[in-house]
Amino acid sequence: MKKDDPLSKSNQERSSLEYDTQMISRVISVIIPCHNEEKNIIKSLHALNNILDNIPHITWKVLLIDDGSSDKTVEIATSLQEQDNRLKIIEFSRNFGKEAAMTAGLDEATGDAAIIIDADLQDDPSLIPQMVKKWEEGTEVVLAKRSDRTTDHVLKRFTASLFYRTHNALSPLKIPENVGDFRLIDRCVIDALKLLPERQRFMKGLFAYVGFKTETLTYKRQARETGESKFTPLSLWNLALEGFTSFSTIPLRIWTYLGTIGAILSIIYGFFVVFHKLLYGNGTQGYTSIFFAILFFGSIQMITVGILGEYIGRIYMETKQRPVYIIRKRH
Ligand code: UDP
Ligand code: MG
Question: Is 67 helix (H, G, I), strand (E, B) or coil?
Fold first, then answer.
């Protein structure tokens, strides 16, 4: 076919048009969980707008999940929505936690991919173009790993690192260290996550569980723009427990082995005591060792009952089949 053949030309035009419409039709839903972020929301949405508008071939929507804010987050968001209808707001009836907010975001996301990003500008939005590029090249999960955690308190860094190490030692499922919830996931990953029926959603674990073709980008995590972290040491501890119990039964099984070792040692000691009595008669010694043994094994039993309780409590909550979140209003 000649170069200036009209048919060839129209074919060329058509194919480039098809290419364009195919690219333009790709929609990204940006999910922002928000709990009392009135001071950050304008700046954060503004930064996102600037970046997303400059990425070619994509259209985008923002899903702001208001997780029971008691400040003006919803009012500010709805006023921003009047200027830009690409913003959708889901208002929870109360605070259900970030894991629930992310779950709602993924349930409501309609795009070909979703990006989960915090409202406080700690997750650097300028990483998004690179994430999208990786996604367009065929990666299904693009993770954002913190190159360093210097903006975190030394105690938070230490406990976070301890959590990742303990979790990955206990569980067959490995969670990548220093990777938060900031990530891009393809539609197929969203659909896979929606298949997981559990109510207690430890999202970092669920993300790792579904798998898919993953690549990691690194970024420097900034300090929080304004306001304070919503995660107290106690809530982080609870999240860590959720992580351990969601993906590992080793905390339950370990006692079987420790108990077996204890029983073997007790039998050996029992023989020793009997022979001692036969050879030397019955002295009145032994008070200290008996006292120690009662306290030690009593404590071990309390710990095992506690660990059983952690799992049984979760089974109990799971059987109630309560919803993960309740929506007051969709704006
Ligand atoms: N967040 C939420 N619900 C909560 C706690 C936090 O939606 O109960 C949101 C919060 O508004 C922010 C993101 O989750 O957009 C991360 O929270 P934060 O910055 O407090 O956590 P950190 O960065 O300290 O881990
Ligand atoms: Mg933060």
Answer: coil
In tens, the pLDDT along 23-40 reads 556 999 999 999 999 999
Ligand 1 neighbour 95 (Cβ under 6 A): yes
What ligand has the least distance to the C-alpha of 103?
1
Count of other CB atoms within 10 angstroms of residue 23: 13
Question: Quick check: helix, strand or coil at residue 81?
Answer: helix
- Residue whose token pair is 């839903």: 29
Report the residue among 118, 155, 182 best suited for mutation to probe ligand 1: largest number of ligand atoms under 8 A from its CB: 118
Residue 7 CA, chain-centre distance (Å), reads 53
Residue found under tokens 């008070």: 287
Domain 17-247: give its CATH superfamily. Spore Coat Polysaccharide Biosynthesis Protein SpsA; Chain A (3.90.550.10)
Average pLDDT, the chain: 86
Residues 6+ apart with CB under 8 A from 124: 144, 219, 220, 221, 222
Q: Cβ contacts of residue 206 below 8 Å, gap of 6+?
A: 193, 196, 198
Taking 3-state DSSP, the helix, strand and coil percentages for the chain, each rounded to the nearest 5, stand at 55, 15, 30
Residue 239 neighbours by CB distance under 10 Å = 17
Ligand 1 pocket test: which of 230, 239, 242 has the largest number of ligand atoms within 8 Å of its C-beta? 230
pTM: 0.79
What residue type is 185 in one-letter code? I
Tell me the ligand closest to 33's alpha carbon: 1
- For 51, half-sphere exposure in the C-beta direction (CA atoms, 13 angstrom radius) is 19
